[in-house]
Amino acid sequence: MIMQDFETETCNSIENIWSSMLGLPVARKKGPFQNRDDETYTGYVTISGTWEGTVSILCPKALAKKVASIMYEVDETEATREQIEDTLGELANMAGGNIKNILPGKCALSLPTVDFGEGPPPTTGAETVSEVVFNCSGLNFSVNILKKME
Predict the structure, then answer these.
(1) 62 — phi, psi (to 5°)?
(2) How many other CB atoms are found less than 10 A from the CB of residue 3?
(3) Angle, nearest 10°, between helix axes 81-100 and 61-72?
(4) 122 pLDDT band (50/70/90 cuts)?
(5) Which of 89-93, 115-119, 127-131 ranks highest by mean pLDDT?
(6) Which of 63, 66, 117, 130 could hold 139 in an S-S bridge, CB 3.0 to 4.6 Å?
(7) What's residue 36's pLDDT?
(8) Which CA distances in Å does 64 have to 23, 49, 126?
(9) Closest Cα partner for 90 from 19, 21, 9?
(10) pLDDT per residue over 4-32, tens digit each?
């Protein structure tokens, strides 16, 4: 699996998920993820089996509230932390499932986890194989794929 495959699948997956589930367009952005907001939610799933790693979505709080408000059909100011976490977990689960489908061999997906802070817990012996940054409604978010090294 080469990095280009991950980036292509990530772009296709995120564009489809955000368009169909949220009705929001996203655009790929060059460069690393930079959050102007100090508060970031991270939704992630782990993949285990023939290929092992993590797929995570890093999302500023303002965008996380926006997507949760759409999923739960509430005003952004009324979106609860539980709704935000549930929404980001579901988005990470869907993105991770799409990545899992292009991996060789048999792999399983964990239940999603959502943390408040900069990224998922460090995975021992893992390296980033893909980071794709997107812009949605003037805010950037990032989808990262980490592969556990042998």
Answers:
(1) -60, -40
(2) 13
(3) 90
(4) low
(5) 89-93
(6) 63
(7) 62
(8) 14, 30, 26
(9) 21
(10) 588 888 899 999 999 999 999 999 998 77
What tokens does 39 get? Answer: 């508060």
pLDDT of residue 44: 94
Q: Which residues pair with 111 in a beta bridge?
A: none
Can you give the pTM of this predicted structure? 0.90
What is the distance between the alpha carbons of residues 34 and 1, in angstroms, rounded to a whole number?
27
What pLDDT, on a 0 to 100 scale, did the predictor assign at position 120?
56
Q: Which two tokens stand for residue 70?
A: 């759409």
Beta bridge partners of 40: 60
Contact assessment for residue 76 and residue 69, using Cβ atoms and an 8 Å cutoff:
yes
DSSP the chain: --HHHHHHHHHHHHHHHIIIII----EEESS----SSS-EEEEEEEEEESS-EEEEEEEEHHHHHHHHHHHHTS-GGG--HHHHHHHHHHHHHHHHHHHHTTSSS-EEEPPPEEEESSSSPPPTTEEEEEEEEEEETTEEEEEEEEEE--
Distance separating alpha carbons of residues 91 and 44, to the nearest angstrom? 9
